[in-house]
């Protein structure tokens, strides 16, 4: 049996894999305290505040939208990176997929950025300078020191600080340096795709549709890691090996985030993956509240879902993106699950068990 837990801004769901244990984490939106709480409840993060991975061979998948609305975005990204390093040493792994708020920020759309998040960008650039611009050292260790920087900043602030337009402009500039295509944080996000396939389960932020992966190839190229557990080997594929369309979209989103290169001096933002109501990061078809739908609409959605899964050789899909006031939403036959709960909906932990 696989288990999951979540609180307020996120609900952690779990799904049956051939891997020993797997968890999916929904939108976190810059809320470090609740992210820690959820990860501790799920049994993968130590409760002593040391940021230690205690999940053993567990595979954790974060479904995107770490950015915006909260003030500890970089700290969460740093924590997940640190946990991934620790998890791989124990035979586990931490994966992320990018959501619409990641692509929006790389595009320069800062409409939903919290003022505290702009301050965090300023602090992090100063910390990066202290680390002599060693990105890996600064980024991995930021979650451990960000609280002190945040506290020092708040102590020095005066009453008018939230309305300081000059400081806000400085924060926007700092964020642009980090997030613009080719910027260090954009390149960090470029390491993650918009869709992840773990065995025969798909993970993405909004949801896949048949046209996202309708070009098949006979000789796919794999980007994978192998985990060896009890003398058995498991493959975790970071881009689908079945449909050329999905592999291509992951690659193109990554290239766009990395910015101009010798091979492509002006990479375009992949519209089908990142823009439009039916793109992978914006699609809400599978996460609409079931009581709002008629039976014939559910049948149509089920048909599209089955066609999508068949086209990429998967048996089920896990998505986030759309708030679920009642918790985990399932589309019949356990084929799709939406695992994002409404932010601040309740103060109670919700646990979802799947067998």
TrEMBL record:
Keywords: Signal
GO molecular function: hydrolase activity
Signal sequence residues: 1-24
Membrane spanning residue stretches: none
The organism's place on the tree of life at top rank: Eukaryota
InterPro entries noted in UniProt: Calcineurin-like_PHP, Metallo-depent_PP-like
All copies of domain Calcineurin-like phosphoesterase, residue ranges: 24-183
Pfam families named among the record's database cross-references: Metallophos
Name of the protein: Calcineurin-like phosphoesterase domain-containing protein
């Amino acid at each position: 049996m696989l288990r999951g837990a979540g609180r307020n801004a996120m609900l952690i769901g779990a799904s049956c894999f051939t891997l020993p244990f797997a968890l999916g984490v929904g939108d976190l939106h810059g809320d470090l305290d609740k992210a820690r709480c959820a990860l501790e409840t799920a049994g993968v993060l130590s409760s002593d505040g040391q940021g230690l991975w205690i999940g053993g061979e567990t595979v954790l998948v974060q479904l995107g939208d770490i950015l915006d609305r909260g003030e500890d975005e970089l700290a969460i990204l740093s924590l997940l990176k640190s946990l991934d390093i620790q998890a791989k040493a124990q035979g586990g792994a931490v994966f992320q997929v990018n959501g619409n708020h990641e692509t929006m920020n790389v595009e320069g759309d800062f409409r939903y950025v919290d003022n505290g998040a702009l301050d965090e960008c300023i602090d992090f650039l100063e910390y990066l300078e202290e680390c002599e611009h060693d990105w890996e050292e600064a980024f991995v260790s930021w979650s451990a020191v960000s609280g002190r920087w945040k506290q020092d900043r708040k102590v020095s602030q005066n009453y008018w600080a939230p309305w300081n337009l000059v400081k806000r402009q400085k924060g926007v500039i700092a964020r642009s340096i980090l997030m613009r295509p080719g910027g260090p944080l954009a390149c960090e996000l470029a390491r993650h795709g918009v869709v992840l396939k773990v065995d025969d389960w798909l993970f993405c932020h909004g949801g896949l549709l048949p046209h996202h992966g309708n070009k098949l190839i006979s000789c796919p190229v794999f980007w994978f890691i192998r985990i060896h557990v009890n003398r058995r080997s498991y493959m975790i594929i970071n881009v689908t090996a079945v449909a050329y369309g999905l592999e291509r979209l992951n690659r193109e989103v990554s290239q766009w985030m990395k910015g101009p290169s010798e091979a492509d001096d002006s990479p375009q933002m992949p519209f089908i993956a990142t823009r439009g109501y039916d793109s992978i990061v914006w699609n809400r078809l599978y996460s609409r509240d079931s009581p709002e739908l008629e039976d014939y609409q559910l049948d149509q959605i089920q048909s599209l879902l089955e066609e999508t899964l068949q086209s990429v050789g998967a048996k089920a899909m896990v998505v986030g993106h759309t708030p679920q006031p009642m918790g985990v939403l399932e589309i019949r036959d356990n084929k799709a699950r939406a695992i994002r709960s409404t932010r601040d909906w309740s103060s109670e932990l919700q646990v979802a068990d799947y067998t």
